Amino acid sequence: MPVRLFGKDALEAEVIADTTVQEKYTNSWLTSDCGTRYDVWNLCLRIAAFYKIKLCRTYAKALKQLKKEINFSKGRKTKKFKNAALRNLRSYVNKVLKDLKNKIRKNSHEAFEHPGIAEFFENANKAVTQQKNDKNKIYSIFESLKKGGKNEGKKKTARHSFPPGS
User: Fold this and answer.
1) What is the secondary structure of the chain as a DSSP string?
2) What is the mean predicted confidence (pLDDT) over 1-26?
3) How much is the pLDDT for 161?
4) Which of 113, 150, 160, 162 is most buried by a 10 A CB count?
5) How far apart are the first and last CA of the chain?
6) For the whole model, what pTM was predicted?
7) Per DSSP, what are the bridge partners of residue 152?
8) Is 108 left (phi over 0), alpha (psi -120 to 50) or beta?
9) CA–CA separation, 47 and 54 (whole Å)
């Protein structure tokens, strides 16, 4: 049956839309480990901006270059460059994460009292340090933060908005 988009045939009294299948958030330009590391870096910058924390270095230009190297190194000849870029990505994100964590703890910042901060640092550390063949991997830092704490039986845990300001 053809679909009519214009004229009197397009006017319907009721419109039915199937919304059961929705795409999940993924970084299509990277493998899952790289995408989660990049997301952790992005969230660290957002948290620092929200709480007005000045980081020592954000590595924005370096990560932009690494993103290009990882994305465009496909063949066997460029595999060593891609692996080096992946190592650098992990180390840069880890440095930013540690810097943010130290600044929050050192200044006993108001961010330390936010219920999602401890959970974020726990999941972020796991996402940054995970290896290729690990089990119970974090594929999306946003999905792990939306879930909140573990449910104990039928008791529901309170959800908190994280990252702050979103």
Assistant:
1) -PPP-SSGGG--S------S--PPP--TTS-HHHHHHHHHHHHHHHHHHHTT---S---HHHHHHHHHHHHH--SSTTHHHHHHHHHHHHHHHHHHHHHHHHHHHHTT-GGGGSHHHHHHHHHHHHHHH--TT-SS--S-HHHHHHH-S--BTTBPPPP--SSTT-
2) 64
3) 57
4) 162
5) 43
6) 0.69
7) 155
8) left
9) 11
Six token digits for residue 6:
């214009």
How much is the pLDDT for 95?
95
Over residues 118-146, the pLDDT tens digits come to 888 888 998 888 887 888 888 778 776 66
**Residue 119 CB partners (closer than 8 Å, separation 6+):** 145, 148, 149, 162
Give the residue extent of every domain in the chain.
Answer: 55-127
* 129: its two tokens: 């340090």
Average pLDDT, the chain: 77
CA–CA dist 121, 124 (Å, integer): 5
- Please give the Cα distance from 85 to 68 (Å, whole number): 9
Relative orientation angle of helices 32-50 and 60-72, to the nearest 10 degrees: 160
The structure tokens 């089990």 sit at 135
The CB density around residue 101, as the number of other CB atoms within 10 Å, is 17
pLDDT at 6 over 70: no
- Residues 34 and 151: beta-carbon distance below 8 Å: no
